[in-house]
Amino acid sequence: MVKLIIFDIGGVMLDFSEDEYASYISHKLGISERLFKKELMRLIEKMELGYMGADDLENELSKKFHVPKGSFEFGKAFAKLAKLNWNVINLVRKLSKRYKVVLLTNVSFVRYMEMRRLWLSKAHLRTFASCYLHMRKPSPRIYKYVLKVLGVKAKDALFIDNMEENVNGAKRAGIKSFRFVSYEDLVRRLIDLGIEVV
């Protein structure tokens, strides 16, 4: 029986991808999108683990691409490009009245603060952010940590994420998991698991 539902944020509750960010910034600055994305992805993991801040990212990228510091709009571009998925957000709110619902996200400090400003502070849902925990999905450690903090057994939890690697990480931790592909598919899968969605 599902007692806890763990939702990812990016790609589930809001639409945003590093590809979208890389495309936006590289076109704005006139730099190679392929090279920018390669360099960005090298730094993102450090940021999401809380070991690097936005200033450090700006310093490294401005040196690498010979553009002024402040050009990469790491938080500002996120706020501009991210689109809230209100169908999922409203469903999560309904579910939180019947089930224990939490959010688990790989995120940097600056983007976490943008998410809080945009809507998260009003959601009243406990959020586990990788930048504060110094661990990130898909490591089974982060899922086990969430379960331990909440006092829930893996067999009683469900995890939903848009990335297959993160779904597989949760499965390795013993948690029922599936990949988010659309709101309609999400509702169908929840119903199939016996979860009340209305």
Order of helix and strand elements from N to C terminus: EEHHHHEHEHEHHEHEH
Largest sheet properties: 5 strands, parallel
**Average pLDDT reading:** 95
The strand order across the widest sheet is 5-4-1-6-7
User: Which descriptor suits the 3D outline?
Assistant: elongated
Tally of distinct domains: 2
Q: What is the CA-atom radius of gyration, in angstroms?
A: 17 Å
CATH superfamily of the largest domain: HAD superfamily/HAD-like
Name given to the CATH architecture of the largest domain: 3-Layer(aba) Sandwich
Which residue ranges are poorly predicted, with pLDDT under 50 across at least 5 consecutive positions?
A: none
Q: What is the number of beta strands? A: 7
Q: Pairing-aware structural class of the strands and helices? A: alpha/beta
* Cα separation of the termini: 18 Å
CATH topology of the largest domain: Rossmann fold
Please render the helix and strand layout as text.
Blueprint lengths: L3 E4 L6 E2 L2 H12 L3 H16 L5 H12 L8 H8 L1 E2 L1 H10 L4 E6 L3 H15 L2 E4 H4 L6 H11 L6 E5 L2 H9 L3 E4 L3 H10 L6
Helix pairs in contact: 1-2, 1-4, 2-3, 4-6
Describe the model.
The protein is α/β, with parallel strands linked by helices. Helix content is 54%, strand content 14%. It has two domains: 4-15 and 83-192, HAD superfamily/HAD-like (Rossmann fold); 18-80. It is built from ten helices and seven strands. The longest helix is centred in the first third of the chain and has 16 residues, at 33-48.
Keyphrases for this structure?
2 domains, two-stranded antiparallel sheet, 54% helix, 10 helices, 7 strands, Rossmann fold, 198 residues, alpha/beta, five-stranded parallel beta sheet
